[in-house]
Inverse folding.
């Protein structure tokens, strides 16, 4: 199975900060990497697919990069509505696997 | 508008069975693969399994943790996805989400989830 390791597991940031979350795959997954945002008590929401493509309707402050084993999600200017938990997922091979999540909290 | 609505969750004893349903609307259900993903209380997301579409013979994939106990099926005439869960264990306690899969294999839409609690 492909292990997905996210870091950090949590971070505190201020409104307006630039935030970067990393996701590392235990083996190469090309660009079959997605990012999801989840707010408490809500279903996850798709943000990024194919490592760097923005899901329709997602604001351009979110961006993704990477290929192979190392990926990043960047939020260019953190807003109050962005405080949430973020998950990466590989869909290169079965079983599909998620990272452990990164909780973004208000400083 | 794409909508996915799960139902069928509840309290069940260890060793028991439960069948979850997911009603889909707003898109051509029969064209899509569909996933189940779960989330234990306070924990992260765990992929449960996938059903492919008719063009791909409705074949399925499962996580090792549920293989042999859970069965994913679908009824394209009813735009519905199902998760039959047998031999339930306390560690199966979670919110279960159904999700639409696009051709590239990625999830794009999620339902709101249904809570399954396995406890005596």
């Amino acid at each position: 199975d492909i292990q997905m390791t996210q870091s950090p597991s949590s971070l505190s940031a201020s409104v307006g900060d630039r935030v970067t979350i990393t996701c590392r795959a235990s083996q190469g997954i090309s660009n079959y990497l997605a990012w999801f945002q989840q707010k408490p008590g809500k279903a996850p929401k798709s943000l990024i697919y194919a490592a760097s493509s923005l899901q329709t309707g997602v604001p351009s402050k979110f961006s993704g990069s990477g290929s192979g084993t190392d990926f990043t999600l960047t939020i260019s200017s953190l807003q109050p509505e962005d405080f949430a938990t973020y998950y990466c997922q590989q869909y290169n091979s079965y079983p599909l696997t998620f990272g452990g999540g990164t909780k973004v909290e208000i400083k | 508008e794409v909508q996915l609505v799960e139902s069928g969750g509840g309290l069940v004893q260890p060793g028991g069975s439960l069948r979850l349903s997911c009603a889909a609307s707003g898109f051509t259900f029969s064209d899509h693969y569909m996933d189940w993903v779960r989330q234990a209380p306070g924990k992260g997301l765990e992929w449960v399994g996938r059903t492919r579409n008719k063009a791909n013979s409705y074949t399925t994939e499962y996580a090792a943790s549920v293989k042999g106990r859970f069965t994913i099926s679908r009824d394209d005439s009813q735009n519905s996805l199902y998760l039959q869960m047998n031999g339930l264990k306390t560690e199966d306690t979670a919110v279960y989400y159904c999700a639409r899969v696009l051709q590239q294999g990625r999830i794009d839409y999620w339902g709101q989830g249904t809570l399954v609690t396995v406890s005596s």
